[in-house]
């Protein structure tokens, strides 16, 4: 029987147990989409930070997950201690496929090497952390984006602040090349993997998807409101956005803005910075919001800004905004240009160019007709390319390939 048409059981392994950022939102939506398509999912997350932890040498089902059965296992601290929980999960669940998500410093290379011999494995690389000891692909000394492969140059030439992680990252990278299928959300991330020795034939680019705003959306009722969402303020460019908003403030106008920042430390810093810039009454800086509560913020906004200063693997916030018919203004970093068409669905400006960012935001605030046209073109692009049906069709094909390759015998690199 065709594996893409029969019911599968997929074990999803992810280092976080709670919804924090884009990768976590993606996983929740993916599990829901798989369930709607008749597939069964089981989640495995980390015990790190949990108040009630199961024994370190076993995996325990967690009682707090209605969407999928959950297990919590410890981060790796040697093969013997961490292999047994996965062995128990495989014996208990008997999955058709194991799907790794963010597993950096969580699934050890030795555990991964054992798993890939026992079960078909697919890995989604959600960001640049598996390729960079700092997890940012930004040169610390100059602030420029890093275009080098992982190696000693990370210390000698780039001033890497985490040299002790280089051997760990390199070992995990070598082990991960043996998985039966690797999924990335952008051509940028595919090229980075190939630069670091991944076989191109095992990499599949499958863009992220969103289920937000599945029907017609209304333009904002005369509001000149700006929205930005970022978990970690510094790497997501919130200081640069506030600088751009300070430019707008000096021009005058009746605009307002909401910045959603879920990192408590940076939340307080951004509040202080906004007041120093004279933006205290214009800018509302809020903390973590429930997933569904973001809908009201998208609907209220006229423009959504994605000012990330790291190379984004994709940029899920952008297509969520487009699903609501909102134009996007973003820095050109990583995979953003692959879904944001400059001058069509919004504006893509040079990374770090605060003046250009402010100018494009001001243009959309001043021209509601342009914002409406760009927003509608963005909504059409989402419906055509970034819905769950498109994503699942491609992902199930990757699962099928992984099952067939595992059945054919050991991989050779």
Identify the notable features of this structure and list them briefly.
16% strand, Rossmann fold, eight-stranded mixed β-sheet, 38% helix, alpha/beta
Oligomeric grouping of the chains:
single chain
Q: What about the largest sheet? A: 8 strands, mixed
Tell me the number of structural domains: 2
Which CATH class of the largest domain is shown?
Alpha Beta
- Annotation, overall tally of beta strands: 14
Question: Which structural category fits the helices and strands?
Answer: alpha/beta
Please tell me the overall pLDDT. 85
CATH homologous superfamily of the largest domain - what is it?
Answer: Glycogen Phosphorylase B
Which value, in Å, is the CA radius of gyration?
22 Å
Q: Topology, pairings included?
A:
Elements (H helix, E strand, L loop, with lengths): L8 E5 L8 H15 L3 E7 L13 E3 L6 E5 L5 H15 L3 E4 L8 H10 L2 E5 L27 H4 L9 H11 L4 E4 L2 H9 L7 E3 L19 E6 L7 H14 L4 E6 L2 H13 L6 E4 L7 H7 L2 E4 L9 H8 L4 E5 L13 E5 L3 H13 L1 H18 L2 H21 L5
Describe, in plain words, how this protein is organized in 3D.
This protein folds into 2 domains: 9-209 and 387-408, Glycogen Phosphorylase B (Rossmann fold, 3-Layer(aba) Sandwich), CATH 3.40.50.2000; 225-385, Rossmann fold. The chain has 13 helices and 14 strands. It has helices spanning 22-36, 79-93, 109-118, 153-156, 166-176, 187-195, 238-251, 264-276, 294-300, 316-323, 354-366, 368-385, 388-408; strands at 9-13, 40-46, 60-62, 69-73, 97-100, 121-125, 181-184, 203-205, 225-230, 256-261, 283-286, 303-306, 328-332, 346-350. The strands form 2 sheets. An 8-stranded mixed sheet has the order 3-4-2-1-5-6-7-8, sandwiched between helices. It has a 6-stranded parallel sheet with strand order 11-10-9-12-13-14, sandwiched between helices. The protein is globular, with a radius of gyration of 22 Å. The chain starts with 8 loop residues before the first strand and ends in a 5-residue tail after the last helix. The relative contact order is 0.12.
């Amino acid at each position: 029987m065709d594996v893409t048409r029969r019911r599968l059981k997929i074990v999803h392994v992810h280092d976080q147990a709670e919804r924090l950022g884009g990768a976590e939102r993606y996983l929740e939506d993916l599990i829901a989409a798989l369930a709607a398509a008749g597939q069964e999912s089981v989640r495995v997350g980390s015990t790190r930070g949990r108040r009630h932890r199961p024994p370190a040498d076993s995996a325990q089902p967690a009682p707090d997950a209605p969407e999928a059965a959950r297990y919590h296992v410890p981060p790796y601290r040697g093969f013997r201690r961490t292999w047994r929980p996965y062995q128990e999960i495989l014996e208990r669940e008997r999955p058709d496929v194991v799907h790794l998500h963010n597993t950096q410093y969580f699934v050890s290379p030795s555990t991964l090497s054992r798993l890939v011999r026992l079960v078909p494995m697919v890995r989604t690389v959600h960001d640049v952390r598996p390729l960079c000891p700092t997890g940012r692909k930004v040169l610390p000394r100059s602030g420029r984006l890093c275009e080098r492969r992982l190696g000693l140059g990370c210390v000698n030439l780039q001033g890497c602040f985490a040299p002790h992680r280089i051997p760990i990252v390199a070992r995990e990278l070598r082990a991960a090349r043996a998985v039966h299928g690797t999924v990335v959300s952008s051509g940028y991330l595919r090229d980075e993997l190939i630069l670091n020795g991944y076989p191109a034939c095992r990499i599949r680019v499958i863009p992220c998807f969103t289920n937000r705003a599945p029907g017609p959306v209304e333009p904002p009722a005369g509001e000149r409101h700006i929205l930005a969402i970022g978990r970690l303020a510094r790497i997501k460019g919130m200081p640069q956005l506030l600088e751009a908003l300070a430019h707008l403030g000096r021009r005058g106008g009746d605009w307002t803005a909401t910045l959603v920042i879920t990192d408590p430390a940076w939340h307080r810093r951004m509040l202080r910075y906004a007041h120093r810039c004279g933006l205290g009454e214009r800018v509302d800086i809020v903390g973590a919001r429930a997933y569904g509560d973001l809908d009201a913020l998208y609907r209220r906004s006229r423009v959504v800004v994605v000012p990330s200063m790291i190379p984004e693997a994709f940029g899920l916030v952008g297509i969520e905004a487009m699903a609501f018919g909102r134009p996007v203004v973003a820095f050109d970093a990583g995979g953003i240009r692959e879904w944001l068409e400059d001058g069509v669905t919004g504006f893509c400006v040079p990374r770090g160019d605060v003046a250009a960012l402010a100018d494009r935001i001001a243009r959309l605030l001043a021209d509601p007709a342009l914002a409406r046209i760009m927003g509608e073109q963005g909504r059409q692009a989402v419906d055509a390319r970034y819905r769950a049906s498109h994503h699942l069709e491609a992902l199930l094909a990757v699962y099928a390939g992984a099952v067939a390759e595992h059945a054919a015998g050991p991989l050779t690199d």
